[in-house]
Design goal:
Number of helices of chain A: 11
CATH architecture of the largest domain in chain A: Orthogonal Bundle
Strand content of chain B: 15-25%
CATH class of the largest domain in chain A: Mainly Alpha
Radius of gyration of chain B: 18 Å
Oligomer: heterodimer
Bound molecules: adenosine-5'-diphosphate, magnesium ion
Largest interface: A-B, 26 and 38 residues
CATH class of chain B: Alpha Beta
Order of helices and strands of chain A: HHEEHHHHHHHHH
Helix content of chain A: over 70%
Shape of chain B: globular
Largest sheet of chain A: 2 strands, antiparallel
CATH topology of chain B: Rossmann fold
Helix content of chain B: 25-40%
Radius of gyration of chain A: 27 Å
Structural class of chain A: mainly alpha
Strand content of chain A: under 5%
Order of helices and strands of chain B: EEEHEEHEHHHHEHEHEEHH
Strand order of the largest sheet of chain A: 1-2
Distance between the termini of chain B: 46 Å
CATH superfamily of chain B: P-loop containing nucleotide triphosphate hydrolases
Number of helices of chain B: 10
Amino acid sequence: MAKTTSITNTSSRALSVAREWSADATLRLVLQVFAIALMAIIVGFFVQLALMAAPVISSMGVAGFLFDNNWDVAHEIFGAWPLVVGTVITSVIALIIGVPVAVSAAIYITEFAPARLRSTLALLLDLLAAIPSVVYGLWGVFVLIPTLKPIERWVASTFDFVPFIGGAVNGPNYFVAGLILAIMIIPIVSAISREVLSTVPLAEKEAALALGATRIEVIRLAVLPHSAAGIVSAVMLGLGRAIGETIAVTLVIGNAAIIGQSIFSQGYTLAAVVANEFGEAEPGSVHSAALIAAGVVLFILTFIVNATARVLIMRRTVKRVSVADKVVA
Amino acid sequence: MTTTIAKKGMNLTVKNIQAFYGESKAVKGVSIDFPANKITALIGPSGCGKSTLVRCLNRMHEEGSSASVRGKVLLNEENIYGADVDPVSVRRTIGMVFQKPNPFPTMSILDNVLAGPRLSGDRAHATRKHAEQALRDVGLWAEVKHKLNRPAADLSGGQQQRLCIARAIALEPEVLLMDEPCSALDPISTQRIEELVLRLKKRFTIVMVTHNLQQAQRVADRTAFMLDGELIEVAATSNLFNKPKDSRTKKYVTGQFG
Ligand SMILES: Nc1ncnc2c1ncn2[C@@H]1O[C@H](COP(=O)(O)OP(=O)(O)O)[C@@H](O)[C@H]1O
Ligand SMILES: [Mg+2]
């Protein structure tokens, strides 16, 4: 009798273990399928785009498409260099202006703002993200461009000895586009930075305080090292948004497929050119292939940006340690 | 105007300290002396206000949101809560070691030790030699001398706690506050820290919170018993454990409650 019970117990336990194992295996299989499907979609998407872009590559060549400074639709010449340059310039301006503001705002909200103010400020910043990009673009056209023009003129003439500053000033230009992009990336960069900053352990901040650190020094010693990698990812997401932004940029950059003399010249970006010219391009024509190729370049740019960021994060951690030692030794 | 706390005597005298979290009073008017170069243990059931009291001694308590302090703490006759005293200089003079080891994890071992002197702009002490001394003082030098550039997170828990002690003493404080420094550690690491604390009392006044009564008896010259935010009794350790004056102390040290 006793024996039977114990056998039943054992076998039922074994059974339940087996069932758990098979549930585990099923879950793993499902996840694997999803992961592979995701990769397949990305690869398939890329291949599809590349195929559709093939006509322009056969007429221009890869290097010609990327680096020829000549985007001439009428003569079916598609050198996208002015667009690449415009994308890079506007994105860099957006980061230079937007990142310090976004990160400072995040630090202020998490570390300094009184508790009552905190949620209000966070909400206001989040609201910025809810504004549709076409509204930013219109605001740029009707408010920013006229307001900034005299200031830009002054800057251009006062600092005309600085490369890429002096010279003629166009209403729509790289700088205005960069500024609008900066405002557009601030909410996301700031929100993610805030998230990252709020995960800094209290124990590390207290460690710094107990050593006689001021509030600013606590940030330098405990908060930033802990969140640097996260903030870099936040910046990358912002950069991704800046590179890909279409409508707002189209409205304020002038849409001239040339490389401007200064940051106050008009230009074009990859994303803007696709949005503007797709309607008029014949399906299957070299023009439409060129626009798709522009999309592929955007895709690759974003990919490079992300990869670089990851390498930088890894290097940074190693370097910081060894540099610190040399200072002391 | 702010002044720097003088670094001469090392008696710490607490006068009627009250500590609040918002409206609730966690320390209800405690007065106690921490004599120079002695180890004073703070014991008492969990939640009785030991950590809060200790955090009042280097003005850490007030950093918490809606936390406030009333009363005086005299270091060498000077009130660290005086109107013209900079809390930053207080924290340099009165060092603190926490319950959970909290080195800066990504910073190298060496940089951790030198973080304090660098913060205070003390170039004379922000040297590798000074770091070596502090690491020797805590008995960590032999274990880390070949990997000073490794991040502190690479060390074991016990090593991290000794690193934290080295970091605190690298500032050459007068007083060392330790809030249950061994509660996260294994018995061997605990023993090492106890030996270390006994050595360090030659140089510092030590206040050590512990929930371990044996530990208090092993290391403390004096022991204070707290209950519910109040100081019940403070006496030479053997007296407090063997001839407690208060019945509540007796109940606690004989393990009848808490
Ligand atoms: N951050 C805090 N906010 C509100 N109350 C707290 C906080 N920290 C501690 N307390 C309360 O203060 C009292 C004393 O806590 P503490 O000093 O940590 O006790 P101990 O260190 O003796 O265990 C407890 O009642 C605790 O609940
Ligand atoms: Mg405690």
